[in-house]
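Sample pair:
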Amino acid sequence: MKKVKTLLMTAIVAVMTFAPIASVDAYSIDTTYNQMRSSQQTTNDYIILHETGGVAPAINNAQYFNREWRNAGTYSSHVVGDGGDVYQISPDGYVQWGAGSYANARSPVQIELARTNDPATFEQDYKAYVNLARDMAQKYNIPLTLDGAGRGIKSHSWVSNNIWGDHTDPYGYLAQHGISKADLAQDLRTGLDSSDDVDADPETSNPGSTAPEPDSNDYQNTSGSYTFQNTTKIRNSVGTNDGYTGINYSAGQTVNYDRVYKNVDGYDWLSYISYGGQRRYVAMTNGNGSSSSSSNSSGQSTSGSYTFQNTTRIRNGLGTGASYSGRNYAAGQSVVYDRVYRNVDGYDWLSYMSYSGQRRYVAMTNSGSQSYGTQQNQSGAYTFRNTTRIRNGVGVNAGYTGRNYQPGQTVYYDRVHRDVNGYDWLSYVSYNGQRHYVAMTN
Protein backbone atom coordinates (compact mmCIF):
# COMPACT_ATOMS: atom_id res chain seq x y z
CA MET A 1 0.00 0.00 0.00
CA LYS A 2 1.33 3.39 -0.87
CA LYS A 3 2.20 5.39 2.23
CA VAL A 4 0.02 8.45 2.59
CA LYS A 5 1.11 11.29 4.80
CA THR A 6 -0.99 14.15 5.99
CA LEU A 7 0.85 17.21 7.21
CA LEU A 8 -0.87 18.67 10.22
CA MET A 9 0.32 22.01 11.53
CA THR A 10 -0.14 22.43 15.24
CA ALA A 11 -0.72 26.14 14.76
CA ILE A 12 -4.36 25.74 13.71
CA VAL A 13 -7.31 28.05 13.99
CA ALA A 14 -6.60 30.88 16.43
CA VAL A 15 -10.21 31.62 17.28
CA MET A 16 -10.76 28.60 19.51
CA THR A 17 -12.59 28.75 22.82
CA PHE A 18 -9.63 27.44 24.81
CA ALA A 19 -5.88 28.10 24.95
CA PRO A 20 -4.26 29.40 21.76
CA ILE A 21 -1.96 26.96 20.01
CA ALA A 22 1.72 27.74 20.48
CA SER A 23 3.80 28.21 17.37
CA VAL A 24 5.33 24.75 17.13
CA ASP A 25 6.73 22.51 14.47
CA ALA A 26 4.57 20.53 12.09
CA TYR A 27 4.37 16.80 12.56
CA SER A 28 3.54 14.18 9.99
CA ILE A 29 0.65 11.72 10.30
CA ASP A 30 1.16 8.45 8.46
CA THR A 31 -2.28 7.18 7.41
CA THR A 32 -1.12 3.85 5.95
CA TYR A 33 -2.96 1.91 8.66
CA ASN A 34 -5.95 4.23 9.01
CA GLN A 35 -9.08 2.12 8.57
CA MET A 36 -12.70 2.45 9.70
CA ARG A 37 -13.03 -0.11 12.50
CA SER A 38 -16.23 1.14 14.13
CA SER A 39 -19.18 3.00 12.67
CA GLN A 40 -20.19 4.39 16.06
CA GLN A 41 -19.47 8.10 16.43
CA THR A 42 -18.29 9.35 19.82
CA THR A 43 -19.36 12.30 21.89
CA ASN A 44 -16.64 14.90 22.36
CA ASP A 45 -15.79 14.68 26.05
CA TYR A 46 -12.28 13.25 26.42
CA ILE A 47 -8.90 12.90 24.74
CA ILE A 48 -7.31 9.83 26.34
CA LEU A 49 -3.53 9.45 26.71
CA HIS A 50 -1.91 6.01 26.81
CA GLU A 51 1.54 4.47 26.45
CA THR A 52 2.26 1.11 24.86
CA GLY A 53 3.81 -0.61 27.88
CA GLY A 54 6.88 -2.08 26.18
CA VAL A 55 9.94 -0.79 24.34
CA ALA A 56 9.29 -1.22 20.61
CA PRO A 57 9.14 1.04 17.54
CA ALA A 58 5.87 2.90 17.07
CA ILE A 59 5.46 1.47 13.60
CA ASN A 60 5.54 -2.05 15.10
CA ASN A 61 2.72 -1.06 17.43
CA ALA A 62 0.78 0.47 14.56
CA GLN A 63 1.15 -2.71 12.52
CA TYR A 64 0.10 -4.81 15.51
CA PHE A 65 -3.06 -2.76 16.10
CA ASN A 66 -3.86 -2.90 12.39
CA ARG A 67 -3.36 -6.67 12.21
CA GLU A 68 -4.65 -7.88 15.59
CA TRP A 69 -7.26 -5.35 16.67
CA ARG A 70 -10.12 -7.85 16.53
CA ASN A 71 -8.20 -10.62 18.33
CA ALA A 72 -6.54 -8.33 20.86
CA GLY A 73 -9.72 -6.29 21.40
CA THR A 74 -7.78 -3.05 21.56
CA TYR A 75 -6.67 -0.15 19.38
CA SER A 76 -6.36 3.62 19.61
CA SER A 77 -6.69 6.25 16.92
CA HIS A 78 -3.01 7.27 16.93
CA VAL A 79 0.41 5.91 17.91
CA VAL A 80 3.30 8.36 18.46
CA GLY A 81 6.99 7.44 18.41
CA ASP A 82 10.08 6.76 16.28
CA GLY A 83 11.36 10.29 16.82
CA GLY A 84 8.10 12.22 16.67
CA ASP A 85 6.19 10.31 13.97
CA VAL A 86 2.43 9.83 14.24
CA TYR A 87 0.66 6.74 12.85
CA GLN A 88 -3.10 6.88 12.50
CA ILE A 89 -4.92 3.60 13.12
CA SER A 90 -8.55 4.66 12.81
CA PRO A 91 -10.47 7.85 11.99
CA ASP A 92 -10.83 10.21 14.90
CA GLY A 93 -14.39 10.87 16.02
CA TYR A 94 -15.30 7.17 15.95
CA VAL A 95 -15.14 4.66 18.79
CA GLN A 96 -11.77 3.06 19.56
CA TRP A 97 -11.17 0.19 21.96
CA GLY A 98 -8.71 1.61 24.45
CA ALA A 99 -10.35 2.47 27.75
CA GLY A 100 -13.57 0.56 28.34
CA SER A 101 -16.98 1.04 26.74
CA TYR A 102 -18.02 4.14 28.71
CA ALA A 103 -14.85 6.13 28.02
CA ASN A 104 -14.51 4.80 24.47
CA ALA A 105 -17.94 6.17 23.56
CA ARG A 106 -16.96 9.62 24.82
CA SER A 107 -13.44 9.91 23.38
CA PRO A 108 -13.00 10.98 19.75
CA VAL A 109 -9.22 10.52 20.04
CA GLN A 110 -7.05 8.10 22.03
CA ILE A 111 -3.26 8.38 21.67
CA GLU A 112 -0.60 5.76 22.38
CA LEU A 113 3.00 6.81 23.15
CA ALA A 114 5.55 4.17 22.11
CA ARG A 115 8.32 3.50 24.62
CA THR A 116 11.99 4.17 23.92
CA ASN A 117 15.16 4.10 26.00
CA ASP A 118 16.81 6.84 23.93
CA PRO A 119 16.44 10.32 25.51
CA ALA A 120 16.72 12.20 22.21
CA THR A 121 14.03 10.05 20.60
CA PHE A 122 11.82 10.50 23.65
CA GLU A 123 12.08 14.29 23.47
CA GLN A 124 10.76 14.27 19.89
CA ASP A 125 8.10 11.69 20.71
CA TYR A 126 6.91 13.63 23.73
CA LYS A 127 6.60 16.89 21.81
CA ALA A 128 4.51 15.24 19.11
CA TYR A 129 2.41 13.44 21.77
CA VAL A 130 1.62 16.70 23.59
CA ASN A 131 0.99 18.77 20.49
CA LEU A 132 -1.19 16.12 18.84
CA ALA A 133 -3.29 15.92 22.02
CA ARG A 134 -3.62 19.71 22.06
CA ASP A 135 -4.60 19.87 18.40
CA MET A 136 -7.19 17.14 18.72
CA ALA A 137 -8.62 18.71 21.89
CA GLN A 138 -9.04 22.01 20.11
CA LYS A 139 -10.52 20.33 17.04
CA TYR A 140 -13.28 18.87 19.24
CA ASN A 141 -13.60 21.87 21.61
CA ILE A 142 -12.32 19.81 24.55
CA PRO A 143 -10.63 21.77 27.39
CA LEU A 144 -6.85 21.49 27.70
CA THR A 145 -7.09 20.42 31.34
CA LEU A 146 -5.50 17.17 32.47
CA ASP A 147 -7.34 14.71 34.72
CA GLY A 148 -9.76 17.30 36.05
CA ALA A 149 -13.49 17.06 36.64
CA GLY A 150 -15.77 16.96 33.60
CA ARG A 151 -14.56 17.18 30.00
CA GLY A 152 -10.87 17.40 29.20
CA ILE A 153 -7.69 15.49 28.41
CA LYS A 154 -7.50 12.32 30.52
CA SER A 155 -4.79 9.81 31.28
CA HIS A 156 -5.67 6.12 31.20
CA SER A 157 -4.83 6.26 34.90
CA TRP A 158 -7.65 8.78 35.42
CA VAL A 159 -10.06 6.50 33.57
CA SER A 160 -9.09 3.60 35.86
CA ASN A 161 -9.51 5.68 39.00
CA ASN A 162 -12.79 7.31 38.00
CA ILE A 163 -14.61 5.05 35.52
CA TRP A 164 -13.26 1.55 34.95
CA GLY A 165 -10.06 -0.47 34.64
CA ASP A 166 -6.69 -1.01 36.31
CA HIS A 167 -4.24 0.80 34.01
CA THR A 168 -1.98 3.56 35.33
CA ASP A 169 -0.40 4.80 32.09
CA PRO A 170 1.21 6.98 30.94
CA TYR A 171 2.70 8.35 34.17
CA GLY A 172 5.12 5.55 35.03
CA TYR A 173 6.82 5.70 31.64
CA LEU A 174 6.90 9.51 31.56
CA ALA A 175 8.50 9.56 35.01
CA GLN A 176 11.37 7.42 33.68
CA HIS A 177 12.24 10.36 31.41
CA GLY A 178 11.82 13.01 34.10
CA ILE A 179 8.27 14.06 33.19
CA SER A 180 5.85 14.45 36.11
CA LYS A 181 2.08 14.75 35.94
CA ALA A 182 2.48 18.48 36.63
CA ASP A 183 4.91 18.74 33.70
CA LEU A 184 2.45 17.05 31.38
CA ALA A 185 -0.42 19.26 32.54
CA GLN A 186 1.59 22.42 31.92
CA ASP A 187 2.87 21.26 28.52
CA LEU A 188 -0.67 20.44 27.41
CA ARG A 189 -1.72 23.95 28.38
CA THR A 190 1.14 25.71 26.59
CA GLY A 191 2.39 23.38 23.84
CA LEU A 192 6.02 22.53 23.03
CA ASP A 193 8.40 23.54 20.29
CA SER A 194 11.85 22.35 19.24
CA SER A 195 13.70 25.61 19.81
CA ASP A 196 17.21 25.29 21.23
CA ASP A 197 17.07 28.84 22.54
CA VAL A 198 16.44 27.84 26.11
CA ASP A 199 16.93 31.39 27.36
CA ALA A 200 13.99 32.76 25.40
CA ASP A 201 11.55 34.57 27.68
CA PRO A 202 8.82 32.06 28.58
CA GLU A 203 6.47 34.94 29.44
CA THR A 204 6.54 36.44 25.91
CA SER A 205 3.00 37.15 24.77
CA ASN A 206 1.50 35.47 21.73
CA PRO A 207 1.88 37.51 18.53
CA GLY A 208 -0.83 40.12 18.29
CA SER A 209 -1.77 39.96 21.96
CA THR A 210 -1.19 42.60 24.58
CA ALA A 211 1.40 41.84 27.23
CA PRO A 212 0.05 42.01 30.79
CA GLU A 213 0.82 45.23 32.60
CA PRO A 214 3.54 44.90 35.25
CA ASP A 215 2.30 44.69 38.83
CA SER A 216 3.10 47.49 41.22
CA ASN A 217 2.43 45.33 44.29
CA ASP A 218 5.05 43.24 46.00
CA TYR A 219 4.66 39.52 45.36
CA GLN A 220 6.48 36.25 45.86
CA ASN A 221 7.52 34.10 42.88
CA THR A 222 5.99 30.97 44.38
CA SER A 223 4.47 28.16 42.31
CA GLY A 224 1.94 25.60 43.43
CA SER A 225 -1.66 24.45 43.21
CA TYR A 226 -4.67 25.45 45.28
CA THR A 227 -8.09 23.77 45.43
CA PHE A 228 -11.03 26.01 46.20
CA GLN A 229 -13.59 25.14 48.85
CA ASN A 230 -15.84 28.07 47.88
CA THR A 231 -16.97 29.77 44.67
CA THR A 232 -14.32 32.47 44.10
CA LYS A 233 -14.26 35.38 41.64
CA ILE A 234 -11.46 35.62 39.08
CA ARG A 235 -10.19 39.20 38.80
CA ASN A 236 -8.07 41.24 36.40
CA SER A 237 -5.94 42.69 39.19
CA VAL A 238 -5.20 42.08 42.83
CA GLY A 239 -7.71 43.20 45.46
CA THR A 240 -11.44 43.03 46.12
CA ASN A 241 -12.18 46.33 44.39
CA ASP A 242 -10.65 45.54 41.02
CA GLY A 243 -12.19 44.28 37.80
CA TYR A 244 -14.24 41.09 37.97
CA THR A 245 -13.81 38.97 34.84
CA GLY A 246 -17.30 37.51 35.09
CA ILE A 247 -15.77 34.04 35.61
CA ASN A 248 -15.45 32.07 38.84
CA TYR A 249 -13.59 29.11 40.23
CA SER A 250 -16.13 26.70 41.69
CA ALA A 251 -15.65 24.61 44.83
CA GLY A 252 -13.46 21.61 44.01
CA GLN A 253 -11.67 23.26 41.09
CA THR A 254 -7.89 23.82 41.23
CA VAL A 255 -5.68 26.69 40.06
CA ASN A 256 -1.97 26.37 39.23
CA TYR A 257 -0.35 29.66 40.26
CA ASP A 258 3.05 31.30 39.91
CA ARG A 259 2.75 34.31 42.25
CA VAL A 260 1.44 34.98 45.76
CA TYR A 261 0.41 38.40 47.12
CA LYS A 262 0.19 38.63 50.90
CA ASN A 263 -2.52 40.48 52.84
CA VAL A 264 -4.26 42.60 50.22
CA ASP A 265 -7.76 43.68 51.33
CA GLY A 266 -7.69 41.05 54.04
CA TYR A 267 -6.76 38.09 51.81
CA ASP A 268 -3.71 36.39 50.40
CA TRP A 269 -3.99 36.29 46.60
CA LEU A 270 -2.82 33.84 43.95
CA SER A 271 -1.96 34.91 40.40
CA TYR A 272 -1.50 33.00 37.16
CA ILE A 273 -1.45 33.47 33.38
CA SER A 274 -4.75 32.42 31.81
CA TYR A 275 -5.04 30.36 28.64
CA GLY A 276 -5.66 33.63 26.79
CA GLY A 277 -2.35 35.08 27.98
CA GLN A 278 -3.83 37.47 30.56
CA ARG A 279 -2.69 37.62 34.18
CA ARG A 280 -5.51 36.75 36.59
CA TYR A 281 -5.93 36.98 40.37
CA VAL A 282 -7.95 34.98 42.90
CA ALA A 283 -8.33 35.35 46.65
CA MET A 284 -7.48 32.41 48.90
CA THR A 285 -10.99 32.06 50.32
CA ASN A 286 -10.76 28.68 52.04
CA GLY A 287 -10.62 30.32 55.43
CA ASN A 288 -7.05 29.79 56.52
CA GLY A 289 -5.53 31.93 53.77
CA SER A 290 -2.86 29.36 53.01
CA SER A 291 -2.26 27.12 50.05
CA SER A 292 -2.59 23.37 50.26
CA SER A 293 0.64 23.10 48.33
CA SER A 294 3.17 25.24 50.12
CA SER A 295 6.53 26.16 48.67
CA ASN A 296 9.68 27.31 50.41
CA SER A 297 10.91 30.15 48.19
CA SER A 298 13.87 31.13 50.41
CA GLY A 299 16.84 28.97 49.49
CA GLN A 300 19.87 28.07 51.57
CA SER A 301 23.22 29.38 50.29
CA THR A 302 24.86 25.96 50.10
CA SER A 303 27.41 24.92 47.45
CA GLY A 304 28.19 21.45 46.21
CA SER A 305 28.04 18.94 43.37
CA TYR A 306 25.20 16.51 42.64
CA THR A 307 25.22 13.61 40.14
CA PHE A 308 21.88 12.61 38.65
CA GLN A 309 20.69 9.02 38.51
CA ASN A 310 17.65 9.90 36.36
CA THR A 311 16.89 12.20 33.45
CA THR A 312 15.83 15.44 35.17
CA ARG A 313 14.30 18.61 33.71
CA ILE A 314 16.08 21.96 34.01
CA ARG A 315 13.57 24.67 34.94
CA ASN A 316 13.46 28.45 34.82
CA GLY A 317 11.85 28.67 38.25
CA LEU A 318 11.35 26.72 41.43
CA GLY A 319 8.85 23.84 41.56
CA THR A 320 7.25 21.31 39.23
CA GLY A 321 4.91 24.00 37.88
CA ALA A 322 7.75 26.30 36.80
CA SER A 323 8.51 26.63 33.09
CA TYR A 324 10.67 23.94 31.47
CA SER A 325 13.83 25.26 29.81
CA GLY A 326 13.78 22.56 27.12
CA ARG A 327 16.97 20.96 28.47
CA ASN A 328 17.60 18.02 30.80
CA TYR A 329 20.37 16.62 32.92
CA ALA A 330 20.91 13.02 31.84
CA ALA A 331 21.74 10.17 34.22
CA GLY A 332 25.44 10.36 35.12
CA GLN A 333 25.76 14.11 34.56
CA SER A 334 26.57 16.45 37.46
CA VAL A 335 25.51 19.95 38.44
CA VAL A 336 27.52 22.37 40.58
CA TYR A 337 24.96 24.30 42.64
CA ASP A 338 24.99 27.28 44.98
CA ARG A 339 21.51 27.13 46.53
CA VAL A 340 19.23 24.46 48.01
CA TYR A 341 15.44 24.75 48.43
CA ARG A 342 13.77 22.28 50.78
CA ASN A 343 10.44 20.49 50.21
CA VAL A 344 8.94 22.34 47.26
CA ASP A 345 6.27 20.27 45.47
CA GLY A 346 7.57 17.17 47.25
CA TYR A 347 11.24 17.55 46.25
CA ASP A 348 14.39 19.27 47.44
CA TRP A 349 15.73 21.54 44.68
CA LEU A 350 19.18 22.70 43.58
CA SER A 351 19.81 26.03 41.87
CA TYR A 352 22.75 27.37 39.88
CA MET A 353 23.71 30.05 37.37
CA SER A 354 23.87 28.79 33.78
CA TYR A 355 26.63 29.75 31.35
CA SER A 356 24.31 32.35 29.86
CA GLY A 357 23.80 34.01 33.24
CA GLN A 358 20.29 32.66 33.88
CA ARG A 359 19.37 31.06 37.19
CA ARG A 360 18.21 27.46 36.76
CA TYR A 361 16.53 24.93 39.05
CA VAL A 362 16.60 21.11 39.16
CA ALA A 363 14.82 18.67 41.45
CA MET A 364 16.88 16.14 43.40
CA THR A 365 15.27 13.11 41.77
CA ASN A 366 17.66 10.38 42.91
CA SER A 367 16.14 7.64 45.03
CA GLY A 368 15.81 8.90 48.55
CA SER A 369 16.04 12.58 47.55
CA GLN A 370 12.31 13.24 47.66
CA SER A 371 11.31 15.20 50.71
CA TYR A 372 9.06 13.42 53.20
CA GLY A 373 7.70 16.72 54.48
CA THR A 374 7.12 17.08 58.21
CA GLN A 375 6.60 13.72 59.91
CA GLN A 376 4.41 13.63 63.03
CA ASN A 377 4.09 10.59 65.30
CA GLN A 378 0.31 10.82 65.51
CA SER A 379 -2.25 8.02 65.77
CA GLY A 380 -5.86 7.93 64.67
CA ALA A 381 -8.45 6.52 62.28
CA TYR A 382 -9.35 7.86 58.83
CA THR A 383 -12.30 6.77 56.67
CA PHE A 384 -11.89 7.14 52.92
CA ARG A 385 -14.49 8.76 50.67
CA ASN A 386 -12.54 7.93 47.47
CA THR A 387 -10.68 4.91 46.12
CA THR A 388 -7.11 5.54 47.29
CA ARG A 389 -3.91 3.73 46.39
CA ILE A 390 -1.72 2.09 49.03
CA ARG A 391 1.95 2.85 48.43
CA ASN A 392 5.31 1.56 49.66
CA GLY A 393 6.65 5.07 50.24
CA VAL A 394 5.37 8.57 50.77
CA GLY A 395 4.44 10.60 47.67
CA VAL A 396 2.61 10.09 44.39
CA ASN A 397 5.74 8.68 42.71
CA ALA A 398 6.33 6.00 45.36
CA GLY A 399 5.75 2.35 44.48
CA TYR A 400 2.10 1.25 44.19
CA THR A 401 1.34 -1.96 46.11
CA GLY A 402 -1.44 -2.93 43.73
CA ARG A 403 -4.04 -2.56 46.51
CA ASN A 404 -6.47 0.24 47.33
CA TYR A 405 -8.64 1.48 50.15
CA GLN A 406 -12.24 1.74 48.94
CA PRO A 407 -14.82 4.40 49.95
CA GLY A 408 -16.13 3.59 53.42
CA GLN A 409 -13.03 1.64 54.51
CA THR A 410 -10.94 2.90 57.44
CA VAL A 411 -7.19 2.93 58.08
CA TYR A 412 -5.62 3.08 61.55
CA TYR A 413 -2.40 5.08 61.27
CA ASP A 414 0.53 5.95 63.52
CA ARG A 415 2.30 8.65 61.47
CA VAL A 416 1.34 11.70 59.43
CA HIS A 417 3.54 13.27 56.72
CA ARG A 418 2.50 16.82 55.89
CA ASP A 419 2.38 18.36 52.40
CA VAL A 420 4.12 15.87 50.12
CA ASN A 421 3.13 16.28 46.44
CA GLY A 422 0.16 18.38 47.53
CA TYR A 423 -1.28 15.85 50.01
CA ASP A 424 -0.98 14.99 53.66
CA TRP A 425 -0.11 11.28 54.01
CA LEU A 426 -0.97 8.67 56.59
CA SER A 427 1.36 5.78 57.38
CA TYR A 428 0.83 2.48 59.16
CA VAL A 429 2.40 -0.96 59.52
CA SER A 430 0.49 -3.61 57.58
CA TYR A 431 -0.37 -7.09 58.86
CA ASN A 432 2.75 -8.51 57.16
CA GLY A 433 5.01 -6.00 58.92
CA GLN A 434 5.54 -3.64 55.96
CA ARG A 435 5.10 0.12 56.36
CA HIS A 436 2.58 1.55 53.90
CA TYR A 437 1.42 5.05 52.97
CA VAL A 438 -1.90 6.52 51.79
CA ALA A 439 -2.81 10.05 50.73
CA MET A 440 -5.63 11.86 52.53
CA THR A 441 -7.79 12.24 49.41
CA ASN A 442 -11.14 13.25 50.96
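The CA atoms of residues 70 and 213 lie 57 Å apart.
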